[in-house]
Structure formats: structure tokens, C-alpha cells
């Protein structure tokens, strides 16, 4: 049978349309219960047990649970535990969850798919006895609640009539909606709140800890610490009339009491300061902002907050502590300032961290300190504090009432003991939202067999380059080799009598194995990038591809996508062609091995000849780029030596940069530019490109002031003038000064981002760092999904493969770019966190006295860099001894003046007293300042030393040879 649904809708032109839809109903849908003897169920259809044992003290009889939508949305962590079984998930609930939260929907599907959990999905919306029509004037939510009650009532009746041997499970409806429970009880349905049910479960210790805390109404004002948030309708009205603005809140990494949000109409991000200004927003939330009057505008704080372990309780700090004492409205640093007046959408996730020990024995309420400093502490309830206090744990946020200084949350699971290497790596991956689960069976099913070889028919479709002397050059230990090169002199010369060369870049043909819209493709798109930690690698595609079939290993035939040029001896590109190919690399070399081959004059074989041609051309290409305005920047980069058994770091050293690093980089850049030009011409609306916006002038303010103190006027009007100024800024006798200046210049840059060509104008394609009008990523498809898309587009251009709908969908391309940029950024952060973790392990029970350089001067600290280790962080200065001169940006203590670029000597040790935020301790050695500087015990001084901490270690350890957003002097590092 069927029923009909009628809708009236108005078109843009004002016409009213009547839409009638047929809704089919059936009477043969299975109930899924073993206790039923009427439904024609096979063994595979039966999910629910005939006599489930009751685990809840409130019900001493067998029963099935029926859940409403909010139970799934708010208590998914409880549902994922093995305690609850024999649960009925209605279609009404599934569809509501899917509509409201796709991530929660996927988690629910995983539970239903686990046969051991006994969760049965019942299609109540298509059963003739459980379907309910929406009444006139009835809200959709009320109709859905009625549908859930109807299904629960039907199950109870169905099982009581159609049971085996007169015994049958009863139905218990779990809902936290008090009104829904009241109506259900009046209708004779047994119901219970989730809290009451779970707190009476026997035999599952800690299950109650996973309960989500109830959200207190925003109107509740008793002991309120924060202003009430506006309602959704008030926010919508305010944004529409221009009084409010929408933006995403980004908390400061150095100062949790401060953040920004970019809003339309303002060139600078809007500054949000203090508890009241931030008003319970958490990093990532989409918020409604009210801009303050101009006379109340402020500027970002120059105070670096210290990490303190004590709990200040339910009161708020004075927000004036974050601001300068005097604010001049004419100051260039003054920023539009606002306050959060409402939350449009929460972007909360699960957070890693540690439990703070309670001062009261037997307490159940505790504070949780997240590993991410941008996230505030969280109040949770647990009866396992004695066990959890020594472990890294995962906590989910539930609500943030107005009368609580901290948000409320609940315990999710333990990750392992604090300090355990596996647990700490898990924290890094979870905190930076890095997908790292094992590849699913569906993904692995997309792979070819382990012994796959290139079919002869595939070779016939391609250009056979196996006879060409191709070789790869990568860091030591690299197994995911995605690029190789060749160069050979051509017999013909140019009209000007110049030598001509045949030069090729050959990239692993990952798209031959990763086909569109397969499970493998979707997983690679989700991950977007391979993530490199110090001691492990999280692959974007399974190891069979990344380290074997797609890796261009020496002596093995591989499928490739080749970009081949004719280039004259002055490094001018005469012609370009692209084609799918088959190659056989003659050698997989490290940068050092390639450099030795080039320098060893006695070697005149094909490999040496090819590398020398490539190296000579690369130097000319690089000079052309620099002359064109490309920036040669820098960042502190280090490499750990890792113990082969424990995988713990045993030493650290700065990375060595050789000519071969630059050689490979230049040809990767040339390939990327060549492909970008071709794609933009063939697919002007949907080419996947990469742009690097020029930094706004405000980004250079502190940098220019610091350079001026050293006697240099840096011209940042264009990237070309900037590059020339950096080249000229040299201090004889201080060779590291110019490198330091370039490191600081890197901090002024904006991030390079992926984008779809149809979303930007031609002028916006420009890549500021590389000084080129168009750019993309083509050269690393093993570890970047952006390159996979570029390969597909290029293959369609040259007729090597067919196109598909999603490639040409500009909306899908825009969403893809957003994910690519997010995953790329998170991978960088994860790499830096891994460096910090391994640095802490390295400095355990270790003391070093090293040279340091001042990178920045803050109101209460110096930001210093240790060149030997690439370590960087704040060196705190005691306010009773130092005076901060804001105008000159210097710190003064008696006759000692400390400013940017000053050279210091510091002592490094590790402070592990706060296991959540272990820190390197800096102690000033020279210049000697009584009462501040560290003095060895056997020296004649009784003055106390000054302890300071490092928060952030190194810019990164995992730069790639074609990384483009910051520096063009980087090298690829792979484990």
C-alpha cells in the first residue's frame, strides 16, 4: 500500500507549485528479533537476542532499548561501549542524525555494522503499522517523537503476540526529553532517561563517566560569569541589518585569552580579548561578533602567558592584563576589536590531555587540561581519577553554562600512560585531527595483488622510457619515492648555436591504481596528505602503493607520468610535452650520494653525466627565479638520529643543504609551473592550482623595526625589492645574521593555499614566494591528494584518461580545496609537535649550554632561537628587574639592553614537573645579569638563576623539496 504527501512551494517568480509524492508502506518488514515466530526471518536477518540479560538495576527483566535522536547525538560515546546491546535504531532516528551530524551518523553506522553489538536498524517509516503522518501545525520534531513512540509501542505489542514459548523481551524507550517521557508513560510505554539507566548499569566500571553533561539553558542567570548568548533569530536579524558579523574564532597559540576572527568588510581580522570578549567561544567555533566603537579598539597582546597548574576557580581574570596600558588610536598596530555575542555553530571535537589531581580525597569532579593550549580546561566527573591521573585521556565537550568558568565535558577513553611513546604519538595524531586508523577492508580490496607486474598491454599504451638513464634523488631512508629525473644532450643545436638538452621529470603514476570514487580514492581524499612524524609515517595510500608499486625504486620498472622539455644551455625552455610512460630507474640516490657523483671527476657514466647537466641547468634556473623576484627564505630545520631499537632520539643536528637539494627542487618547481599553465588553458574553470597571497603590510611592522635597529632598511613594496634587500643585509663576522633575517621574514608570510581556478581572478593566481603567475602541485601524488587530482586533469588534457563528473564540478572542487588546505596545515602542526616530543625525550637528564639569538622582544619575554638545535621559545624576564621599552622594542636591565638579533648564551634542561606541558628550561648565562643569569655552583655567586620555558620547538622538520609557501631553500625529508 502507499500514502501520499502533498507540499505547496513558491518559486522565485512567485508561482505556487503543488507537489505530490507517493510514500510506499509495507507489512512484511522484519523486526529482527529471535523472540519472534511470525516474521519470515533467516538467520542473517536476526540481530536481537531472544532473552537478553538485563544489565540495568532498574529493570530486572529482558528488554530491548529504543533510542530517540538526541540520545544518539549526545551519548554516542556511551553507545560505542560494549555494555549496551540489543538496541533498536529506528529509521526516523537514523535520518535525523544524518541530517544534523554526518560524523555522528558514520559512528552510528559503524556500531550497527558490528554484529557483536546487536544493534538493529528498523525501517519504521515504511512499515504500515509504524508510519505516522504529520498533523497540521505539528512541528517536525514533535512528529518524529510521535513516530518513535509509535514504533516502540508496536514492538512491544508485536513481540507480546508473536513470541516463542510465551516469553518475550519488553521495550524500554531511552530519552532525555522530559516531555517525551511524560507522554510515553501516559501511553503505557516503559521509558527512562539515559542518565538513570547508565548509572544503574552493573558490571561496567567507568561507563557513567562517559555520560554527556546536560546543557543548562542560556537564560539561566544565577551566579552568571558571562553575558548570555543571543538566540539564533536575534543573530540572524543582527547579521542581516549589519549590526553583527559572522566569523570563525581562532584562538592564539601563545595566549588563550586572545583570538581573532576574519569578517567581511574589515581588512584586518577582528581582535577578541579576555573572557568576556571571547564569551565561551572555543577555537574553530563559528560565532556572531559585535564590533566595538573605534575608541575601544585595541591591539594584539605582547604578553606571553605562562602555563600554570593551579585552578583559579570560578572567577575571571581581569581582561586588562592582556592589553597595553596605553592605546594610541593612531598606532598602526591598532586592530578592529569586537566581542562574541552568540554561537552560530560549535566545532567541538574530542580533546587529548591529562586529569589534574584533585585537592580533595574522593572527589568526583575534576579539571582536565587539554594538550592543545588554545583549548580551555574542562570540568569532568569521574570515579576513576586514581587510575586516570597517570594517563593520557580523551575528553569530549558537552556544554558551557554561563555560571562556569570552564566548559563541561565527559571522559571518552584512555590513550595510555603519560610518557609512553605510543600514547604520546597517538595524542599528536588525535590533537591534529590526522586520520590514522588502519585502512579498511574496502580500501584494501581496491589494491592489486602483491606480486603485480606491469601488463604488456599497458606498456603498449605508454611511451617506453626504460632505456633512458633515469634516477631519483631523495633523503636517506626514503621509501615513498614519487619523482625521478633524466637529462641528456641532444645532437641538434639551437639556431644560436647553443646546446640543447632533453630533460624529464617522471612522477609516479598513482592514478593508475587510485581510480575515481572507489573506497581507496575516498580514503585518500579524506586523508589528503601523508603525515611525517620523527619516527613514523602516516601514509595517504596503503604501503603496497606508497613504498612498493608506486615508489620509483632503483632497478624496477614503474608506471610514470612524465613531463619532458627541450632546454637550451642557458636554461630556456624551448618545448614541453606530457605523456604517460614506463621507466626503469638506474639508481635511487640520496642527496649526498648524488652530490658525490657530481663532484667525483673520475666518474663519466650516464648517471654522472645526467646529474651534472641537471645541476648546471638548475643553477641557472634558480638565478632566473631570484632575478624575477622569488624569495629565498629560511626556517630552522633539524634532523634526529634515532635509535634503531627503541626509536628514541639519541642526537639532533641541523640539516645539511647541498647543491643537489636545490637541483631537484628547481626541476620540481619547473614541472609544477608547466603543468599549471597547461591545466589553466584546458580547464579554465576547474583547474586545481596553488596560490601564495602577498602578505599585508601590517605583517612586516615588527620585522622592519628589528632590521632598522641593525642599520638595514628593508624594502617590502614588492617581492623583487624584498629579495634584493635581504641579499644586501649582511653583517661581516656574523654569517648567521642573514639566515636569521630570512627566518624572521618567513614569519611575515601568509600560507600558500590550494584553490579551484574558477573561484579566483587571474591576478589572484599569483604565487608571491616563487614570483610566478601560476603554480600547482604535480610532483608528489604518493603523499598529496592535490597531485592526484592534477594528474587526472592532465591525463584528460593529453588524452591519456577520461574525465569524470566530479573533476568538472566547481562546487565539489572548492570543498576539496578546503579539506586539502586544512589537512596540509594540520600535518605541518603534527610534524612540529613530533619534533617537540622528541626534543623533550632527547633532553631528559641532559644539560647543554648553547648559543642563542633573540628573534623577538615581548613585554615579558624574549623569543629566542638555538641555531644548533632549531629550538625556539620564550625566555621569560622578571618584571622587577627588566623594563620594557615598547617604542624601541627593547628590554632594559640596568646598563644591559636586549633587542632583536642579540646573541646570548643559555643553559638548556628539561622540566617534567608538569607532565601535560613538559618544557625545556632556558637559563640565561650571558650576558651576565646579577640575580638573573645562571652561574655554576663552583663559581663565586649566590645569585639565583632565572627559569624560562620553551613552548614551540622548531619551525618544522618535514619540509619537502617542492614546498612553496615559505621557503625555496628546503629539502624533502621522508622516513
From TrEMBL:
Regarding protein family, the annotation reads: Belongs to the RNR ribonuclease family.
Q: Which domain of life is it from?
A: Eukaryota
- GO MF, any single term: 3'-5'-RNA exonuclease activity
rRNA processing in keyword set: yes
Family matches, as SUPFAM superfamilies: Nucleic acid-binding proteins, PIN domain-like
Lineage, opening ranks: Eukaryota, Metazoa, Ecdysozoa, Arthropoda, Hexapoda
**Record protein name field:** Protein DIS3 homolog
Q: Which GO terms describe its biological process?
A: CUT catabolic process; nuclear mRNA surveillance of mRNA 3'-end processing; rRNA catabolic process; rRNA processing
Spell out the residue ranges making up region: Disordered. 940-975
Q: What sequence ranges are listed for the domain PIN?
A: 63-182
Q: Gene Ontology terms, cellular component aspect?
A: cytoplasmic exosome (RNase complex); nuclear exosome (RNase complex); nucleolus
Question: One short Pfam family name for this protein?
Answer: RNB
**Cofactor(s), names only, from the UniProt record:** Mg(2+)
Composition-biased stretches (Basic and acidic residues):
957-967
UniProt entry keywords in alphabetical sequence: Cytoplasm, Endonuclease, Exonuclease, Exosome, Hydrolase, Nuclease, Nucleus, RNA-binding, rRNA processing
Q: Does the keyword Nuclease apply?
A: yes
List where in the cell it is found.
Cytoplasm; Nucleus, Nucleolus
Residues forming the RNB domain are 462-800
Coiled coil spans: none
